Amino acid sequence: MLNWLGRFNICCFLDNHQYSLPPHRHDCMAAAGQVSVMHGSDRSVLEGIEQFNAQHSDWIFGHLGYDLKNEIEDLQSTHQDPIGFPDAFLFVPEYVLILEEGSVSIGSLQPDHETVFNEISSADPVVFSGNRVDVKQRLSRYEYIDTIKRLQRHIHRGDCYEINFCQEFFAENARIDPAATYQALALLSPNPFSVFYRWGSRYLLCASPERFMTRLGNRLLSQPIKGTITRDLEDPVRDLALMNELKLSLKDKTENVMIVDLVRNDLSRVCREGTVEVEEIFGIYAFPQVYQMVSTVSGELKADTGLVDIIRACFPMGSMTGAPKRKVMELIERYEKTKRGIFSGSVGYITPGKDFDFNVVIRSIMYNEADHYLQFMAGSGITASSDPEKEYEECMLKASAIRKTLVKEV
Fold this sequence. Notes:
Layout: H1 2-5, E1 10-15, E2 28-32, E3 36-40, H2 45-55, E4 60-64, H3 69-72, E5 88-92, E6 95-100, E7 103-108, H4 113-122, E8 136-137, H5 141-157, E9 162-171, H6 178-188, E10 193-199, E11 202-208, E12 211-216, E13 219-223, E14 225-230, H7 236-248, H8 250-268, E15 277-286, E16 290-300, H9 307-314, E17 322-323, H10 325-335, E18 346-350, E19 356-359, E20 364-368, E21 373-382, H11 388-406
Antiparallel strand pairs: 1-2, 1-10, 2-6, 3-5, 4-5, 4-18, 6-7, 8-9, 9-17, 9-21, 10-11, 11-20, 12-13, 12-19, 13-16, 14-16, 15-16, 18-19, 20-21
């Protein structure tokens, strides 16, 4: 499927790697080609999203960029953006493929379903021949730790309670095979909200473990992740001890519950009074590289609540901002050095019945093939009790799988 998608200038490939994180939707989906598109990078993006969603009773795929915040909260972003994804892009695809265990469904506007199936079946597999990318850090270890201390001073003054701070890792004159590199990343770090996404010469190669928001009828559900610890797959006893360390971590629970409260508040703006509930708090989930602390918050939507109402109330996701949201987004702009763009935004789909499922864009490579510029970003949530040295180590841990993919030789 990845090889077949390579012929399309716009495509989206979603793979949950057979995780059963509820609510489970589909094992694997792909959308290719475009019948109609919505492209937005100005102050009327939300209006464009609303109109496009209303006009099309079909599958819609695409992304919401982090800097939609500028329209939602009247903020601004002045940092460089070397990748260049728009603030939002939605498209009605020419083809939709849904892969489940033992079956594949092909949706097409033309009577060519069998042809598509044969093309995919006969396509050569994507082959990863290795990368030798010279990755640099935007901040030194000292600069990163010093920034964490500065942010903690804001917390101690009462400016905020928690803030998500990230740094950029980048490479200039980078040349990679996007599909093969995505596959290598997915094999090294398979996660339930993985994405291969192409918009012209821009690519997103995403190994995200986190769901932003899903809608099932009148039910809205979010699953923020806060709390990370490395795994030791070679020593099961130590691996279990690390899991229990995360499970009992006061720092991680404090961080997680702050975001859960923020999500509850966001959902209460669009959900019926008394229906917002925390279905699971501090759940510990195993992923290939790390254990993560995941909570689940849900609610029943008010009547006539649309997609843009939900975006205005809940975007960007609290796990990638902090609390209170507007203030920490101002601080993120002040202390980070690169525009986030599609990073800490969201990629997903809307069904013909207007349900949807969107991820959180983290653990991702962003690549501008035309300019040969590659970047990825990593960071963590900072609280008053954070240890700056350990926050730096967590940042580097999250970046490790991507680093391995970009410097690997086969």
